[in-house]
């Protein structure tokens, strides 16, 4: 195997060794386009769909540039959730371990862990700092962590950083860093509300948008499953059994619903993992480990907890409910079909989701309509069939009305009589139709 396509970046040999082990043979598009400008020291905004390799687009040039002789902070990498920060930290480990001669140091700082121990860890400053903005800012304020020596900062999953109210912390960290600061912002979507932040922090950033050909990875099959007055948890259970997935993530909009769904499935005898923000850090860590060692076939998750985490081998994403912010649909579905594999994204919907579905279709998503029949998947027609059927009923209704003459003089009880006549007429019509 060769990593020849990475050679033009002139990375140090140990990085090429790491890439070999990672089995990355050629850079992804966002890596291809951003690595050279990051190497030139330019600030950048990298926008591309989930699963396109944004992490290594910044990790590789940052690690490559670290001066092992300088035992001080040289780069700060922030991520909005503990899991994501932890994952980035592990990715760094997989690369820097190859530089045995001049060891590079990286340290992880996330909330929900013992602060005194974090301060203890900082007796020697690491060269790369990874963590959540809140905890990093905290340690900077405590003067345990010295970031003034660093001139590179990464804001990964920037839209979520904003949503979670971490922008202020990022601001405070950045304010204490070198003046010629290189800011690298990554996100799958750049919502309007992020723009003031970008303007404030980035003067002339290189903006790289790798436009997806479709709104999500092409190998995802998007499936709509109508709820149709069925019990939603039973439907979910049947869907999971019919898919028999390698690994499915079931998304809910709230922690409460995540618990409800997970408990419901457990009650039905299924082995289910769950990740959401209310789990104590130790528990979350344990679940992540279990997920990655494939102890679960099903994982129930909320958007925030699952964002940006690279769980390998997610074959199915199930939307137990559609997110109100449709960008999250893209993020959720981005969990499957990563790095070229194919995947299925199935959404349980009811008629109140119609508007959201139309908007998703406008975003370029093509849905297949499917349902379970005796535990087998079958293709069903367009979801607008429902409307068509309703129209047919209305027509029969009108016809019935026109057939039933309204008496000129209104007698008591006429309404009842008329309704009965109409019902009889409708029944006859339906019987005729069936024949
Ligand atoms: P993003 O941050 O854009 O959502 P990630 O950085 O998490 O995506 O990468 C998604 C997956 O693709 C990861 O499993 C990662 O190891 C893999 N990957 C990244 N770059 C490459 C590459 N050049 N070749 C093959 N796989 C890659
Ligand atoms: Mg990412």
Automatic annotation (TrEMBL):
PROSITE patterns: HELICASE_ATP_BIND_1 (PS51192), HELICASE_CTER (PS51194), Q_MOTIF (PS51195). CDD domains: DEADc, SF2_C_DEAD. One of its GO terms (biological process) is RNA catabolic process. Residues 4-32 form the DEAD-box RNA helicase Q domain. Residues 35-208 form the Helicase ATP-binding domain. It is found in: Cytoplasm. One of its GO terms (molecular function) is ATP hydrolysis activity. It catalyses: ATP + H2O = ADP + phosphate + H(+). Its main location: cytoplasm. InterPro entries: CshB, DEAD/DEAH_box_helicase_dom, DEAD/DEAH_RhlB, DEAD_box_RNA_helicases, Helicase_ATP-bd, Helicase_C-like, P-loop_NTPase, RNA_helicase_DEAD_Q_motif. The keyword Transmembrane does not apply. Residues 239-386 form the Helicase C-terminal domain. Residues 391-400 have a biased composition (Basic and acidic residues). Residues 402-418 have a biased composition (Basic residues). Its EC number is 3.6.4.13. GO terms for cellular component: cytosol; ribosome. Keywords: ATP-binding, Cytoplasm, Helicase, Hydrolase, Nucleotide-binding, RNA-binding, Stress response. SMART domains: DEXDc, HELICc. It is an enzyme of class 3 (hydrolase). Residues 389-435 are annotated as: Disordered. Belongs to the DEAD box helicase family. CshB subfamily. Probable DEAD-box RNA helicase. May work in conjunction with the cold shock proteins to ensure proper initiation of transcription at low and optimal temperatures. This is DEAD-box ATP-dependent RNA helicase CshB.
